Amino acid sequence: MPGNSPSLGLRGFSGGGCRHSLLTIVWTVVGFFLAAHLISLYTSKDDQQQQQQAPSHHLQQQLHPPPHPALRELVRVKEEILRLPPPRKRSPRTSKRRSRKPIPMVEEFLDDKSPIRHLFFPDMKTAAFGPTKDMGNDAFHYFPGRFGWTRKETQFKLTAEGFCTTRNLARTIGVGCYSSKDLWTWKNEGIVLGAEETNKTHDLHKSNVLERPKVIYNEKTGKYVMWMHIDDANYTKASVGVAISDHPTGPFEYLYSKRPHGFDSRDMTVFKDDDGVAYLFYSSEVNSVLHIGPLTEDYLDVTPVMKRVMVGQHREAPAIFKHENTYYMITSWCTGWAPNEALAHAAESIMGPWEKLGNPCVGGNKVSRLTTFFAQSTYVFPLPGVPGAFIFMADRWKPSDLRDSRYVWLPLVIGGPADQPLESSFGFPMWSRVSIYWHSKWHLP
Ligand SMILES: *[C@@H]1O[C@H](CO)[C@@H](O)[C@H](O)[C@H]1NC(C)=O
Ligand SMILES: *[C@@H]1O[C@H](CO)[C@@H](O)[C@H](O)[C@H]1NC(C)=O
């Protein structure tokens, strides 16, 4: 997030990772998620060979099969009209945050006095939903924007408990963990990595910043390893932190922080590949370049190997996923807390080169597509049992009250030819499209 302006400070976190268990699938959220990987990747060699041949309609169909029947409802394009309220005087706060070319609806989104505020941040009390509520036909639907952080007393279990802070904001509590077996009902597992109350020189001191924690399971050591962005209130430390636990639900022991490969590191994520090798992705060189490097076998450090990708492109909030031997990534641009246009990227090798696939957002309206539905990518989670389908998880930041920021979860589907011709593929539609479909409410297929 706040790429360009360090003073804009903190942001929430999310987590992710994979764990395989045979009988019980335990979905666990750490800030977000620790989870089971159920997607089996099956690519036939034949298909790959055919990709080398000249394109034809038949081949197109083979390369880009129609979406899984279970997804029929989720890939329906849903338009949504947002109407601007009558013009009025803006709160000074919003004007200060004016971007170079303000979009009126984004100004509205950022204005905490906006009369249409409830469209972006529905009242948590009245927007009650969840399995314990009698919602009739609305039960078991996700309502993007209604998930929040914090507040144990609410029904909003898809939340992360207090996370990070700048001097003016709520103190750091630590990293929260929620678990679920069905991605719907959630158990609050409490704080799994707590803040340091007294020791001011400690990375986790409550005056510091902890963002974007991710947890991955190491089969060789049997440990759960958490990677996170560690910073001071002024975003000058720009480091990664590492913590370890025997259980996904903690408690995690904090090990250390460092600047990976000697570089500044802000937005980051970790991705564990099918072969057990895990990688650190981080926005570096003042958010202008993305760095990718494999972790050591025990996942407790980076190795000396590192690639610089998307040089000069100023991308942050990377979320990585894989389908049929292709790696995908969603990123945002750096505009502080203001939402911006997401990009999808693809690569045959995780270390790159990564190529742009274009804006993945489908439906909603023009402004919401240009603002990632007023949110920022944080994690992409495989949808169990539906190859090529994922849950796109994003943070809808509320700059005036960051702890009331929301989650936007939407279906993400890989399929159909990419709509952006690529630099190195001679116009050949080698990549599939990545689409994130807007739904004001939806449920798992
Ligand atoms: C405070 O934290 C620092 C950094 O982790 C550590 O070196 C130091 O020993 C701690 N001090 C106390 C009194 O625990
Ligand atoms: C952050 O910056 C302010 C003003 O520039 C300074 O007073 C403060 O000591 C800095 N804090 C840290 C943790 O670097």
Can you give a write-up of this model?
- The structure is a single chain.
- The protein is mainly beta.
- The chain has a single domain, classed as Tachylectin-2, Chain A (5 Propeller).
- It has 6 helices and 23 strands.
- The chain has helices at 45-50, 57-63, 92-96, 104-110, 117-120, 366-370; strands at 18-19, 27-30, 35-36, 147-148, 174-180, 187-194, 209-218, 223-231, 239-245, 253-258, 268-272, 278-284, 289-294, 307-309, 315-323, 326-333, 343-347, 355-358, 361-362, 376-382, 389-396, 406-417, 432-437.
- Strand 11 (268-272) and strand 12 form a beta hairpin.
- The two termini are 31 Å apart.
- 46% of the residues are buried.
- The model is unreliable at 1-57, 126-135 and 148-171 (pLDDT under 50).
- Residues 232-234, 236 line the site of one 2-acetamido-2-deoxy-beta-D-glucopyranose.
- InterPro entries: Glyco_hydro_43 (IPR006710), Glyco_hydro_beta-prop_sf (IPR023296).
- Residues 49-63 have a biased composition (Low complexity).
- GO terms for molecular function: hydrolase activity, hydrolyzing O-glycosyl compounds.
- Residues 86-101 have a biased composition (Basic residues).
- Residues 47-67, 82-102 are annotated as: Disordered.
